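The following record pairs a protein chain with its ligand, PMT.
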Amino acid sequence: MNFLSGKHILVGVCGGIAAYKSAELVRLLRGAGARVRVVMTASAGEFVGPRTFQALTGEAVWQGWSDDRSGMDHIELARWADRVLIAPATADVLARLAQGRADDLLAAICLATSAPLLVAPAMNQAMWGHPATQANAAVLCERGVRLCGPATGEQACGDIGAGRMLEPPLLLQAISDSFGRGLLAGLKVLVTAGPTREALDPVRFLSNRSSGKMGYAVAAAAREAGAEVTLISGPVSLDRPAGVALVRVESAQQMLEAVMQRAGACDIFVAAAAVADYQPAETASRKLKRQSAELTLKLKPAPDILATVAGLPAAPFCVGFAAETENLRHNAHKKRLGKGIAMLAANLVGPDLGFDVDENALLVVWEGGELHIEKDTKYRVALRLVEQIAGRYQASPHDKHTESHAEHSA
Ligand code: PMT
């Protein structure tokens, strides 16, 4: 599977003899379909020119903060990146990252980004073996930075030992693996998406504006993270995401049944569907005839699928969505507790917001924490959400994934 297609990879190039290999790395990343931006440190320019990277990426190359005076390059690039890969990473940059310095653009990006960071050390073997460098590398590993290499062999200075930058094809593999390496490998994920239709009679129904795009994006992102994914979908006009098992349903009751057949066997349940809150108390078996008098519809609550799954004795790790028109943070926390679930992703909805559009932004909340995922395509937002779900899932006790219900229901 090509995990790199469409991904945003920020390559940091530092001043080392291996910098010439970064051009080949960038070429390989582009060939795999990734969008690449290059940030060079001041000394990198002594080894390789920015024009090389500009030609290979088709993008501007950053050699420091740009002159537009906004001073926001580090924030914009930090948000843009799905992954940051520093190759070659010198002893100096490892030390500065370990210290949390922000004294050049690349270091500031590394502090500002929530994207996973990979570093490919390249330096003289004695410098790599020095206790200071080893301590810095250990600090970075503890913080979740992925160390790629270094390789062992003959060095530019004639020494032999560990300190060579990993070859570009191996770095390409490492960065691809970081997407598909399976944050959710070996796990079963059940996702709901789309609207439900609650029949009034054989030809009419109550429904909502959900297009299914958000739920389908979550299913695709979970699949990409290595999970075995089943998507229970209300009526939408979207194609089945590659590698995902799709079950089509219409009503809330059908969605409940399809979910409950599978919920006991899944590890993670993500409820992105806009399930009806109410359904007609009765469904007419024949088409309702037009009358001159007013018609009053009697509605009854539809089954609450998410709360039902969360209430199972061995409930999966449950992630709900919340469609809110105001008070996003307050309602998100309240709804998470009310549904008795581990995590909830809240989005603002309204005209051109949330429902039936291509972009979304989420406030993700869990016990003691929250994360704002900036507005982006639903797929990229889903990638971020899945990363967060994987992290919280791993951190949670696997025998109990639900919170005790609060007194108040959301
Ligand atoms: O499909 P799109 O056009 O891409 O739009 C995406 C979306 C806006 C529909 C999506 O991001 C979203 O917010 N989905 C949840 C919508 C919703 O029903 O929110 P809610 O606040 O009413 O429900 C809270 C949670 O309970 C949701 O996880 C929902 O799936 C679940 N629920 C609700 C009612 C019900 N009867 N059963 C449920 O399981």
